[in-house]
Every structure is written in C-alpha cells, then in structure tokens.
Amino acid sequence: MQLSELLNIEVMDLDLIVRNKSEALKSLVNNLDQVGGVTDSKELFQSLQAREQLSTTGVGNGVAMPHAQSSTVKTPIIVFARSHKGIDWKSLDEKDVHLIFMILMPENSSNEHLKAIASLSKKLMEEGMIDQLMSVKNAQEVVDLFSEGSDLKETAQAKNEKDTNSELSDSYILAVTACPTGIAHTFMAEEKLKEAAKKAGVTIKVETNGQAGIGNKLNQADIKKADAIIVAADKQVEMNRFDGKPVIITKVSDGINKADELINRALRLDAPIFHAKGEKMNEIEDSGEKESVGRQFYKHLMNGVSHMLPFVVAGGILIALSFFWGINSADPTSSDYNVFAQILKTIGGMSFAMMLPILSGFIGQSIADRPGLIVGLMGGIFANPGVLAAYAPQGTFENLVPSGFLGALIAGFLAGAIIRGLQIAFNWMPKSLEGMKSIFIFPVLGILIIGLLMLFVVNGPMGAVMTGLMNAIESIPREWSIVLGFVVAAMMSIDMGGPINKAAYVTGTALVTQAQGAGSDVMAAVMVGGMVPPMAIALAATIKPKVWSKQERSSAYVNYAMGASFITEGAIPFAAADPLRVIPCLALGAGLAGALSMAFDCVSLVPHGGVFAIAAGGVSNPILYIISWLTGSMVSAFLLNYTRQLKKI
Asked: What is the mean pLDDT of the chain?
C-alpha cells in the first residue's frame, strides 16, 4: 500500500489557523466529519485527546502525528494540515509544530495499514522533505510527494544504502524501539537511530516492537555479533536474550532526540553489561537517564494491577449474578437456596481469592522476573493466613489476622527484594549451576523468607491496626451518629478489603448480629460506604470519558454491577494505580453517603447484598438510602474527574 492512498485531498488544510493543539485536533476531525469519514466526531476527538494525555505526539522537527484506532473511523486515513504560524504541541524537541499528520484507523485494521504509517515516519526523515511540505502550493502536491517510493517493499536504493553502510565500519550495533501504542514513535526512533548510525559510519540493525508485531526481529546471530545494544522503549520488551552484552536502556523519545548520543555511547561501549539471571545490582542499572524511584514503583505496581484486574472483574460479576435468586440464595440452609446461585458465588469467590496472589506475584515478577513471581504469589497467599487452616493443626493460625490488599502490595515488593538479595548472595556460584538457583535455591529460600515475614512481621502490625480501629469506632458516642456514619463509611473505601475496611465491616456485622433481627444503622452506613467506590469509578468514566483511557473505561463500566452488589473490590485496581488521588476522593464520597444514611435513620438487617438487600426489604427507608448512595457516588465521581485533570503527583 502506498501512502498516497491514505492521504485524502478533500480533508487537507494547508493554511490551518488555530490557537492551540486542542483546536487543531477539533478542526481536523471536523474536516473528516464533513466528508463522512467518521460516524461520531465527538468520540473520535475524545480518543485523540486521551492519546495526547499519555504522551505528546509532537515527534520533533516541526511534525506532529496524532493518531487513534477507533470504531468511529470508517476507513484508514491520514488527515494532513499545515500551520505557517506554528502550534505549541509540547513536542519532544520543545519546538512549535507546523506539519500535522492525523493518522486514523478502524479498530480492526490490517497490518498493511500499520506498515504504511511506519513508512510515513521514515519518509518524513528524508532530507529536504519537511522543507518541501512547507512550500507546497496545493493538496495534490502533497500527495505527489508521497506517491513515489512509499510502497512497503525494500527498494534497490535502500538495499544499496544497507550494503554501503555495512562496509563503513567493523562495528555492529543493534537497537530495539518500542512505544506503548506502537504506531509513530517506534518507527521515528528507528529511523533516527539508522540516520545517526549512517552518519557515524557504523552498521546497525533495528528491531521495532510496533502495533503490527515485531519487525526486523533480532536473531541469535545478530546478538552474538553485536558490539552493543540500544533499547529505546517505553514498554516491556524481551531482554533475557541480551545476557552478557553491553546494553543501553532508555526511553523511546531519546531514540528520536538523542540518537547521535546513543550511537556514540554504543561505539564507546559506555554501557553496563546486562545479566538475565544472577545479576549484580550495580551492573543492571543503566548509566544513562535513570528512572525515578516513583516511576519504577509505578511500573512494578501496574504490572501487578493489570494482571489482577481480570480476576476482580470476573469474580465480582459472578458474585453479583448469584444474588439474582435472593440475598441468601447461595446458602444451603436458606429457604431461598438455589444450587446455581451457590455455584456462581463459589466460583466468583475463588476468582476473588486469586486477586491477592496475582497482585503480589506480578509485582514480584516485574522486579525480579520468574523467581519474583513465584515468591510474590506465595506472599499474596500468606496475606490471608486463613487459607493455611487446612494444612496445619487446628488453632495454629487462629491468632493471625489477614493483611489483605495492603499486605499483598507489601508482599509483592518484598518478593522482588528477597530475590534480588538472594541473587547477590549466590552470585558466587558458577554459571553451570544457574538453573539450580532458579528452580531450587531461590524458590525454597524465597518462599520460606516471605512466609515468615508475612505471617510474623507484616500481618501482625496490620492486625494491630485493625483492632485499634475497631476500638476507636466503638468509642465514638452514639449521639454523634452522623460523624460515626461518616467515619465507618469512609473506612470502607480506604483500603477496600484490607484491615481498615475489615475493621469497619466486622464492627457493622457484629452489631447486626447483636441486634437479633432489629438491624443496625452502623451496618447500613458501612454497606453504603462500600457501595460508593466502584459506583463512583463507573460514574466518573461515564460522565467524562476523555480523561480515562479506553482500557480504563472498559474496566470502569463493570463497576456499576459491583457497586450495586456491595463489592468494593471493584475499585481496587484504580486505587492501586493512583492511590494518592483516588483514595481521598473515594473516602470523601463514601463518608458523605454514610453520614446521610445515619441522618436518614437507615437501618440494615443484613451484612451484605447492596441493592439486592434493599429490594428484599433488608434496609429501612430504601429510597433515602439509595439517595445517600448516589449522592456520595456523584461527589466522588466529580472529585475523581477533577483530580485526574491535574498534574499527576
């Protein structure tokens, strides 16, 4: 496919006059809308805006390449615009943008379209191309510039350049480029590194990890021959294959803006030796632009959260479905018992039970690869010592309190640290015994250490925190019922399944039991507080979708069912990903809902069920109770959307 086939003359604007990036995107989308190229211009504009929030599409040299893959786009198209004045696009080189190529694709685009876009990135790197685009007089001239040599087959000229390049130097450098979307930056970095290598007289082979898959994949012969390797990537790429080689690890934007510097570093062998296993801590750190501690923490955490999310969604939906036959339909002793409801709740509960091990396991895996995964998984299990009851004498673990979600977070990072420590401790062993370390030594010692730490160090303090919070709740005078309602409801949204949440829930449940059928206003406040976080997440993504990514929106909408079913855990992935902003917003809304529930004298006869309990008559003043829930949820939703638009902490 040729680039000229994607460029549409009808939608081009060679004299774009706008004040900022947002107006530019809106103008280009409107141009496309006028020719019937998009089914929902508003949704497409929001998708483009959301992509800009991830990272700028201003790739430098006066060029911006905003892009989106959306069901609203009818056919693949590139919308071109030119601004003589220039637009502040927050570009990688901090210069104004004059040339805009808005790349749009339907959701199920073929790889050929993605390759055409890669070809565009390379074409713009050609000497004099930018100047020609700035001087064209009409839209047809733009198409003509891309009509020749833009097919995806390697031209004879390109082959000659490669042959000539390989004769320039005995040095051989490899590179890997990758960006989260795999469309523009990946191929811009590829072309810049090739250009810098040619200038330095060195042979280079670049592997691209793009949306269409891995292009120009590095093989073992390449790696063995290479003098140094540059990894310019903002997402995870296969690294173990580079064991024993000098590797420069940096951002994909550096591959575009600092290509010459990276090539020179590679030629000087100014890079640490990468070790896939048994590495020394001071050897795997990149000596270039290091990531901050906060960014490293975030990347490890998100690896756990992203793997945990499917378990939360699946478990929550299945448990919610089990309430269809009644609030107690999964209980064999209840008159509402339904065997299918019991099966749904059991399977959903098992999915939930996997949540903590998966969270901690994949945090550990992000830090210390496969050994970290193994130890992290066990750490997540030890965060709930109740599961050990079947494997120990009766009463052995009765005094141990689960640490829940927060304990699993700690376990994941502990697992990574334990494996890193063991790698240093056993680095003296010969390479021939490398397999024994990962299969025998690390798992045995790692699981033993994490088990002891979780059971006797981490869980203990968490249990003390929980006991103290329960005592604090019981000490609040009953005449301060509104304050009490705010406190217990807010506690439900702080750690969602952890000790703070459980302290409030256990207190509410105990009061329901003691009431002997009279119900508890504290339990009502606790339940509504637990219903707010997932509902607030869902409402926030619905009210202002442009501040949430497509993946976040898909996960958020499931929380309507979880919030209605009093499954607070649906909000955990969002709270874990951005705790400093999300948790306070959720706690304020939940606290307000709990205070309103108390003010309206709402009483719950049951300790669970959400709207199903309300429908079954388990909550007094049901209309006012629902108003309390929705009011708190809306407050949290608006706070979430407001804080998401602020600069990340």
From this structure: 79
